[in-house]
Specification:
This protein is of the alpha/beta class. 33% of the residues lie in helices and 25% in strands. It is built from twelve helices and 18 strands. The strands form four sheets. An eight-stranded mixed β-sheet has the order 5-4-13-14-15-12-16-18, sandwiched between helices. The protein has a five-stranded parallel β-sheet with strand order 7-2-1-11-17.
C-alpha cells in the first residue's frame, strides 16, 4: 500500500492502541506509540491493564479482525499454549434459571470457534508483531499532557512528559489517536483548547468482579468453558476458563451493588450456591496461584464524538476511550478491533481533512448495536421504575422463555451462543422460526 502521509502518534499501548498503530503503519511513514508504562519484555501482568487479571474471552469478530491485521498470530498463540474452543456445545452455560443443552453438536461450530488465551499473552504477542513493523516505534514511560494545535484547528504535536525525570518534549505529528482507555484525557484537552467535550451516554452498572487464578488437576473438569450469568433474583454469576501453562481463571461477578468476597474460601462458598457440584469439586481440588483480585466497574460510558460539530483536525479516539462496555460480556477487545477496521476504511478512502467525522460516524455504527444490547441486558439485572419497566419486563420474560426452551433445543442453544458471541444480531432470536421454537419448547416443558 502506498505511503501517503508523514507522522502519526498513538497514545497508549493498549490492545486498541496496538491495533490502531497497525492500521496507521500502512498509511504513515512513521508511527510512535506513547505509553505511560515501561512495557514488560516477558508475558506478565502490567499495572496499566488491571483487567488482565480477570477472565477474558475474545469473541469471534475480535479474533477474526486481529488475525486479519496479524496473519498467523493465533497459530503462534496456540503454540504458546492457548486453547482452541472448537465445540462451544461442550461448555456449561447458565442463563437465568436454565442451562443451555449440551445434547449434540452445533450445526456450524466453526463460526463460533474461539481462542482461550490470557490477556497478558495475547497482548505480548500482538505487541511483538507491532514492534516488528519497520516504521513503528515505542516511547515508554511517558504521559501525554497536552495537544499542540495551529490556527487552523489542526493538531501538529503532542506534549509528553517523562514519568521518571519530569522532562517534557513535543512530538510533531499529523494525526493523534487516543487509545488510553476509560480515563482518556481527550475531553479535558478539548475543553482546555476552547472546544466542547463530547456528550456522554452513561448508565450505572455497579459491577464488582473478583478473580482467582488456579491450577485444576488434569481431567478434573470436562467443560471447555463455564459461564453462569447473574440474574435479578441472584445478582451473582461466575465464569471459569482455562488458559495457557495449565492456568485457569475463576471470576465471580456481582451486579446491582452486590459485593463479593476477597478470599478463595469465600469465592468457593459463593459458586457452590449455583454451580453444579462436579464443577465446584474441580475448583476445590485446584491449587491457587496468587491472591484473589477484586475490581469495581461503576458505569458504562459512550462518549459521542460523532455528535460534535467542531473538532480538531488530525485527532481521533479509539477503544474504551470512546466506549467502555460492561466487561462481563467480554466485548471490549472485539469492539476495539471493529473500530480499528473502521479506521482503516476511512484512511483508505483518503481525504484527510474530514477523516475525523467520517471515522467517528463509522465507529458509532459499530458501537450502537453493542451499546443497545449491553444496555438492555444490564437493565434486566437492575430493578427500575418508570417507562423502562414494561420493555424490561418483556425482555426478561422472553429471555427466560428462550433459555428454558434452549435447555432442550440445540438449535436455540446455538442461536443464543451466536448472539452472545456477536456473530448474529439479537434480532435473529426474534424471527418467526425462532419464536416458534421458543413457544413449542415451553409447551413441551409444561
Amino acid at each position: 500500500m502506498a505511503i501517503a502521509r508523514d507522522r502519526a502518534v498513538v497514545c497508549g499501548a493498549s490492545m486498541a492502541g496496538l491495533l490502531a498503530a497497525r492500521v496507521l503503519s500502512d498509511f504513515y511513514e512513521s508511527v510512535t506509540i506513547v505509553e505511560r508504562d515501561v512495557l514488560p519484555e516477558t508475558v506478565t501482568q502490567r499495572r496499566g491493564v488491571p483487567q488482565g487479571r480477570h477472565l477474558h474471552q475474545l469473541l469471534r469478530p475480535g479474533s477474526t479482525a486481529i488475525e486479519e491485521f496479524f496473519p498467523g498470530v493465533f497459530d503462534e498463540l496456540v503454540a504458546a499454549g492457548a486453547h482452541v474452543i472448537d465445540d462451544p456445545s461442550l461448555g456449561y452455560v447458565g442463563v437465568g434459571r436454565h442451562v443451555l443443552t449440551q445434547n449434540g453438536p452445533f450445526a456450524k461450530p466453526q463460526e463460533l470457534l474461539a481462542y482461550s488465551v490470557s490477556r497478558p499473552l495475547l497482548e505480548a504477542r500482538v505487541r511483538e508483531r507491532v514492534r516488528a513493523l519497520p516504521n513503528v516505534t515505542f516511547s515508554e514511560g511517558y504521559d501525554v499532557v497536552d495537544l499542540i494545535l495551529d490556527r487552523s484547528d489542526r493538531v501538529t504535536a503532542v506534549r509528553v512528559v517523562n514519568r521518571a525525570d519530569g522532562q517534557q518534549r513535543e512530538l510533531a505529528t499529523d494525526v493523534v489517536v487516543d487509545a488510553t482507555g476509560r480515563s482518556a484525557r481527550t475531553p479535558a484537552f478539548l475543553r482546555a483548547h476552547g472546544y466542547e467535550g463530547p456528550a456522554e451516554l452513561r448508565y450505572a452498572v455497579d459491577l464488582t468482579y473478583a478473580s482467582q487464578w488456579l491450577r485444576i488437576p488434569d481431567g478434573a473438569l470436562a467443560e471447555s468453558v463455564v459461564v453462569a450469568a447473574p440474574t435479578l433474583e441472584r445478582p451473582t454469576g461466575a465464569g471459569l476458563l482455562a488458559y495457557e501453562d495449565g492456568a485457569t481463571v475463576l471470576t465471580l461477578i456481582g451486579v446491582a451493588g452486590r459485593r463479593l468476597p476477597s478470599d478463595l474460601p469465600g469465592l468457593l462458598r459463593s459458586v457452590a450456591e449455583f454451580l453444579p457440584g462436579r464443577i465446584v469439586d474441580a475448583v476445590r481440588a485446584a491449587e491457587p496461584v496468587g491472591d484473589v483480585v477484586v475490581q469495581h466497574y461503576p458505569a458504562s460510558v459512550w462518549r459521542r464524538y460523532d455528535k460534535l460539530r467542531r473538532f480538531p483536525h488530525g485527532l481521533l479516539v479509539i477503544g474504551d476511550a470512546v466506549c467502555s462496555l460492561n466487561p462481563v460480556y467480554g466485548q471490549g477487545m472485539s469492539s476495539a478491533a471493529l473500530q480499528a477496521k473502521a479506521l482503516r476504511r476511512c484512511l483508505a478512502e483518503g481525504d484527510r481533512d474530514d477523516m475525523g467525522p467520517r471515522y467517528f460516524r463509522a465507529a458509532a455504527k459499530k458501537l450502537a448495536p453493542l451499546w443497545q444490547a449491553n444496555r438492555l441486558n444490564d437493565f434486566a439485572l437492575a430493578p427500575t421504575t418508570g417507562w423502562r419497566t414494561v420493555p424490561q419486563r418483556l425482555f426478561n420474560w422472553y429471555t427466560d422463555k428462550l433459555a428454558a426452551a434452549a435447555a432442550d433445543d440445540i438449535v436455540l442453544a446455538e442461536a443464543f451462543m451466536r448472539m452472545v458471541n456477536l456473530v448474529d444480531p439479537p434480532a435473529k432470536l426474534l424471527t418467526p422460526s425462532m419464536s416458534m421454537r421458543v413457544v413449542t419448547g415451553n409447551l413441551r416443558r409444561g
